[in-house]
Design goal:
By secondary structure, the protein is mainly α. It folds into two domains: 100 residues, no CATH class; 50 residues, no CATH class. 59% of the residues lie in helices and 0% in strands. The chain is built from seven helices and no strands. Helix 3 crosses helix 4 and helix 6 packs across helix 7. The two termini are 16 Å apart.
């Protein structure tokens, strides 16, 4: 079932509002030893004390802290241990540093696809000595990118559509 443009834009706007507070934190680094060990240490809690609160062996906490520092621990386990420290696990997925928001990600993907499609056509036109100037090419890329975004063309994300076989946006 295809998502309507209005629904997609509404969802994107909602997600932008939800992730906005977290984007400032993306530059902050996770403590090298992991959050659990850092918070536990800041609280003055030993691994034995935390293990007792969680209801596991001390070695389980030590292994958990090692796995967390390697990025190999489940969110469920982190949440359980955080709760035992009277804390709460919060996580978010935010755009990479080079993107200000989700819209910029979609813009870049649409523009990259548009560039690919226009350059393919332009190459054929040059072979027939019908090439256009760089300004016209850039305008065509911008126009096509906007069209691809407006139509929510699945090819932006690498999916082929029925219309992608003939090179036209759907």
């Amino acid at each position: 079932m295809k998502t309507s443009r209005k629904s997609l834009l509404s969802q994107r706007s909602l997600m932008e509002q939800k992730i906005r507070p977290w984007t400032a934190l993306r530059a902050d680094k996770t403590p090298g030893a992991g959050w659990i060990k850092a918070i536990r240490g800041a609280l003055g809690m030993s691994t034995r004390q935390l293990a007792n609160r969680v209801g596991v062996e001390q070695s389980s906490i030590t292994r958990l802290e090692e796995r967390e520092s390697l990025g190999k621990v489940t969110l469920e386990r982190l949440a359980t241990v955080a709760k035992a420290m009277d804390c709460k696990l919060i996580y978010a997925v935010v755009p990479n540093d080079r993107f200000g928001d989700l819209e910029m990600i979609v813009d870049e993907r649409a523009r990259a696809l548009a560039r690919q499609l226009v350059e393919r056509t332009e190459h054929s036109m040059r072979l027939e000595k019908q090439g256009t100037n760089l300004h016209d090419i850039d305008e065509r890329i911008t126009t096509l990118a906007n069209h691809l975004k407006t139509q929510m063309d699945a090819r932006i994300w690498g999916e082929r559509t029925a219309s992608s076989a003939d090179g036209h946006a759907k």
